[in-house]
Amino acid sequence: MSVQSIVTEGGEELVILSRRAYDALLARAGDEEAEDRITALLAKEHLTARAAGDVAYAPDWLTAAVLAGESLLAATRRHAGLALDDLAAKVGVPSEALAAMETGARDGSPAVIAAIAQACGVDPVLLQDQDPPSATPRRRSTRHR
């Protein structure tokens, strides 16, 4: 959030926020009209990103697993019906390395993540770290958080 401040001649500090930041602040404070404006803005940004092909859609099984605390990699492997050792063999990495990637103790290279996605039959974009195009405080990651 970009915030500017100015000090008046009387010494009062005024804070200047973008309309987006101001509406988000009001929405968090319970202002329903501001929440509606923020929702509309986020929906518009999402549709714009979707039209540009910048949005990966997580299937329901993956969303549910991550919301339950499972890592993207572990959920994807389990959904594909693969044991840790089986996926490690398919991808060509040691089982210990794959286990460390699933727990977030180790990052997988882009090539390894792509190989995991291919072996599990999912779009590699689902398993890549991504910052969404908007300034929302969400982050998709291969790490278990």
From TrEMBL:
<feature type="region of interest" description="Disordered">
    <location>
        <begin position="126"/>
        <end position="145"/>
    </location>
</feature>
<dbReference type="GO" id="GO:0003677">
    <property type="term" value="F:DNA binding"/>
</dbReference>
<dbReference type="InterPro" id="IPR001387">
    <property type="entry name" value="Cro/C1-type_HTH"/>
</dbReference>
<feature type="domain" description="HTH cro/C1-type">
    <location>
        <begin position="73"/>
        <end position="127"/>
    </location>
</feature>
<dbReference type="Pfam" id="PF13560">
    <property type="entry name" value="HTH_31"/>
</dbReference>
<dbReference type="InterPro" id="IPR010982">
    <property type="entry name" value="Lambda_DNA-bd_dom_sf"/>
</dbReference>
<protein>
    <recommendedName>
        <fullName>HTH cro/C1-type domain-containing protein</fullName>
    </recommendedName>
</protein>
